[in-house]
Amino acid sequence: MKNKILYIHPATRTYRVSIFELLSKKLGVEFFWSGKSKSGTHISEEINRILQDTDIKYTQAKELHNFPIDNFSWQLFKLPFQGYKIYIFSNITGVPYLLLAPLLKLFDKKIILFDELWKYPIEVNKYKKIYPYIKFLSKYCLDGVVTAGSKAKEFYVDELNFPKDKIEIAYNTTIDTKEYIKDKTLDKIIKDKLDKITSKKRLLYLGRIVKYKGLDILIETMKDINQEYDLVVIGDGEFKAECEKLVDELGLKSRVYFLGSCLSNEAPYYYKNSDIFVLPTRFRLDANVQIESWGFTVNEAIALECPVVTTTAVGSGYDLIVDGITGGLADAGDVESLVEKISFVIDNNIDNVIGKKAREHLMKVCNYDDNYLAYEKIIKKVLNND
Which runs of E-coded beta strand occur in 172-281? Predict the structure, then answer.
């Protein structure tokens, strides 16, 4: 494909490497990283490690950390003049897209958007103010969309009236954790650690402990969950103290265990040594983060044949959880519904049939080759509309 393509994205992460490398190798896509993590963080270390090993052509923006807007740099304004025909942006509310889309359209450039969003945060004042502009860009500037899941596609069609035939789905994909767990020593360390705190079967919560992720809802379910199961919590965050207090109030200290955070390379071993993974996200319409746009922990757990129960506030739930077959999908924020779904998996997962079916379904839905084909289709459609 002769037309030059630039993909403007905040940064590369482990779960994006394979698709970005396919786009680079097969279509010659170049990348502009619009954000830059502060040095010394685990994210910056991950990104640096990836960039040392990749062959893709990229430019790293000099993000202005003292500027109150993420992913902003003066370099953005040079991009329309660098000879690209197609520009791919990430996120409908992302600064690069909002700033550059009208200018690019004036220069007769083609614009494609990749997005996970499936509910616009109209309740948040700053997003409410720019909503008319968002709709304007969708109608007059946007040529094609690649969404991360079916709910995001539904959002673009129903909310923004964007043509369905100009949307393709590249289901959010990450590394196959089943192929990743090869450290027998670490596996034994994690298993022994879990066996030491409880001899029962285990429900697992793994992630940041913040209110929208709903750990308190999961803790409340433990009153009515089979006594043969305990809950293990891996993670930390601002909502942890409130959740620990709730455990005390409900008299559940002998069934709920907080083990603190884990390293990213340790997480798969917690899934492997647990019986059910639960992501109990709620809707938080009063907050900047209102939903789980996707929820990669669902992919990671399912890849290891660990059955998953999640909620209707999680994007991946609509594509990876076939309720009652590959896991459980509870009504967000509803304790009774979550109890019902967890109990169903407990009672019906004979010989881990649910975990096995879930992995089989995951492998069909989420893979990088199909992700690439989704991008390729949209790019061809955009060019053919010239």
Answer: 201-206, 229-234, 256-258, 276-279
